[in-house]
Amino acid sequence: MNSNKTNKLKLLVVGAFVASFQFLLGQNTTFEKMLINSDETSQYNVEGSFINSSGSIVVYGYQSKNNYDPFYLEIDPATGDTLEWVDATGTLFPERMQSMVELPTGGYVGVGYTTRSNQNYPWIIKFDTDGDTVFTK
User: Fold this and answer.
1) Among 12, 22, 62, 118, which residue has the fewest nearby CB atoms (within 10 Å)?
2) pTM recorded for the entire structure
3) Interatomic CA distance for residues 23 and 48, integer angstroms
4) What's the domain count of the chain?
5) Are 3 and 21 in contact (CB under 8 A)?
6) Domain residues for 36?
7) Residue 8's closest CA among 37, 31, 27?
8) Alpha-carbon distance 74 to 52, whole Å?
9) Rounded to 5 degrees, what are φ and ψ at 126?
10) How far is residue 88's CA from residue 85's CA, in Å, rounded to a whole number?
11) Which regions of the chain are under pLDDT 70?
């Protein structure tokens, strides 16, 4: 497969992370961008990425600053600008978001697991179109 047609994401997690994306957008467009949240001491663990219905890159996972709560961010693929950054507040227990999809009605659903008393349990979170948590179970 032609490497110009392959989405590439490389992340270095050290309170901020460097992302390198390569996309074919009618022409070969390559950029590298430092993405920093307002809390530069956090560690972000990226679990995956996808292109949403508006064409933005969605990167998601969990961060370890607040007991492994989920996060996601939306990135403009043409410029690398961060359009939205959401650090969700979870429960008192660690929640690790390992997969995420966009809903046809808007917003996102993330799934993963939570750990309680050294046992892992399925976990789900729903975000509305503004990035607010609708529910977590």
Assistant:
1) 118
2) 0.71
3) 16
4) 1
5) no
6) 3-136
7) 31
8) 9
9) -120, 130
10) 10
11) 1-42, 66, 90
